[in-house]
Design brief:
single chain, about 525 residues, mainly beta, Tachylectin-2, Chain A, Jelly Rolls, 2 domains, 6-stranded mixed β-sheet, 5 helices
């Protein structure tokens, strides 16, 4: 008698991947095993898990893009017959700022936008109608320097959009002649050699500034927004249930800046669980380290009692060999407003670089996921797990497992589907989302499309009882001018599902805070 085995999607997602994932725990001859109770293979419980019944299809793809962040506008003004440089009453709390001008100028007109001090120091972009050029200028102690210049044609109407954008120490000039904002020049190293706007004492002297000659201006200034979004991470309670406020879920996102990793920064967005495209920017989070205000990003916020547990990655001053996870605890309302956080290094059980932290408390133990990276030049990285029974998630962490056979795998997410909690990740080499149990054993992979770059598999409970997978892709913005780092599009997928976890531990929205 011959027994026929019917190949199903579940078999392919669960059994077919287990062999390729068996090296999740480190069993090499040089280092000791990384996991207690770890091993290869796929358990019967994993095969029956609800997560492998989810089949995702893409429902939306869109691009959040704003120079001045919505909800964080500091100044709006209209100036007719603009003349001398004008300063706002305030300036940015972090070196992420933008000033947008709509300019109507005569043949000899000009306009400037940027930051300036009461003593006359300035970091500005300037447009001249007569020469048809946009330039980047820094003025210090009475001396002005033109760092870059480029010829730009105005619109046929004589109107022009001119914008100054600061991301870390990188200044970018953008113009809009009718087709949206386009960067025309950018510079970091020359700016940073003259003035370090990451220094809190220096930045505190600068205010938003604008002006012109023979020109009418409409002005808008405030904190910089985003050239795209990436690294989504659900804001959760300690037990992994979503944190709700007024019926809305929250995600942290990395806002792509106009430049590399150091030019990005971290933010909090709320969304409607019935429509994740209904994203609303709520908070902007920065880090204070050694007197510098930096855009550390790619982490998670976890609500534990009356406090927020903050875990983030030190991308704000990234250099190969320096990247690591940092953390802090605060009772401040991190879901609204602007915050500059003092953080400290997290004692993860690794000697390598680390980023993308995530944490959950299950069975009286904290499980901490992170990326472990033996090299950042070239980049080599894989997901890892640690665990502690300490009440403080950052104390007493012991290694559990590391997927050392993977080399382009990041974005670890700890998610509970049904009654099981899993570690999800994103593998660029396999173009798949591997799934591990909390001992680091391979269990299969998500059934979901894989966009470009390394999209993080953030599962989000849907209002219809199913699941969203909210992620991003590698679509760049103006890479020819600002270089790599201005990605990506938001990509939303949906799956009918089961056993959606309740919010705030009991399904009730959290009360509004004063």
């Amino acid at each position: 008698m011959t027994t026929q085995v019917r190949t199903t999607r579940r078999v392919l997602l669960v059994g077919g991947v287990a062999v390729g994932l068996a090296a999740c725990t480190d069993t090499g001859t040089t280092d000791p095993p990384r996991a207690a109770g770890s091993g290869a293979g796929t358990s019967t419980a994993a095969q029956e898990a609800a997560i492998f019944d989810l089949s995702f299809t893409t429902t939306e793809q869109f691009r959040p893009f704003e120079l001045v962040a919505p909800g964080f506008v500091a100044t709006e003004a209209a100036r007719r017959d603009a003349a001398a440089l004008e300063r706002a009453d305030g300036g940015p709390a972090a070196p992420w700022a933008a000033v947008e001008l709509r300019v109507r100028a005569g043949d000899g007109g000009s306009a400037v936008a940027g930051l300036a001090t009461a003593g006359g120091d300035q970091v500005l972009v300037r447009w001249s109608a007569a020469s048809g050029t946009v330039s980047l200028q820094v003025r210090l102690e009475g001396r002005s320097r033109v760092l870059r210049r480029r010829r730009v044609a105005a619109a046929a109407t004589g109107e022009l959009g001119l914008a100054f954008a600061l991301c870390e120490n990188q200044v970018t000039a953008l113009v809009d002649t009718g087709d949206g904002w386009q960067p025309v020049l950018t510079e970091r190293d020359k700016v940073a050699s003259l003035v370090d706007l990451r220094r809190e004492d220096v930045l505190g002297e600068y205010r938003y500034a604008w002006g012109g000659r023979d020109a009418d201006l409409d002005v808008r200034a405030g904190l910089f927004g985003m050239a795209g979004l990436r690294d989504p991470h659900l804001v959760q309670n300690a037990d992994g249930t979503p944190y709700l406020r007024a019926g809305r879920l929250h995600l942290t996102w990395t806002c792509a800046g106009l430049g590399f990793f150091q030019q990005a920064h971290w933010t909090v967005w709320s969304l409607d669980p019935a429509d994740p495209a209904d994203l609303r920017l709520e908070a902007q989070l920065f880090s204070r380290r050694d007197g510098l205000v930096l855009g550390d990003h790619a982490g998670q916020l976890v609500r534990d009692g009356e406090q927020w547990l903050v875990a983030t990655s030190s991308w704000g001053d990234f250099e190969p060999g320096s990247i690591h996870v940092r953390h802090t605890t605060t009772e401040a309302d991190l879901l609204r407003g602007v915050h500059v956080l003092d953080t400290e290094p997290t004692p993860l059980p690794t000697e390598h670089g680390s980023w993308d932290p995530g944490l959950i408390r299950v069975d009286d133990a904290w499980h901490v996921a992170f990326v472990e990276s033996p090299s950042q030049d070239p980049f080599d990285f894989h997901p890892a797990l640690a665990r502690t029974t300490s009440r403080d998630w950052s104390e007493g962490l012991e290694p559990v497992a590391a997927a050392t056979d993977r080399h382009q795998c990041e974005g670890p997410v700890l998610a509970t589907v049904g009654d099981r909690t899993w570690l999800l990740a994103s593998d660029a080499d396999e173009r798949a989302y591997p799934v591990f149990d909390l001992d680091g054993r391979p269990a299969g992979r998500l059934d979901a499309p894989y966009p470009t770059n390394i999209p993080h598999p953030q599962l989000v409970p849907a209002a219809d009882g199913g699941w969203w997978l909210v992620t991003f892709d590698g679509t760049q913005y103006a890479e020819d001018v600002v270089g790599y780092g201005g990605h990506g599009d938001v990509v939303v997928m949906h799956a009918a599902g089961t056993s959606v976890p309740a919010g705030n531990g009991a399904g009730a929205p959290a009360p509004e805070e004063d």
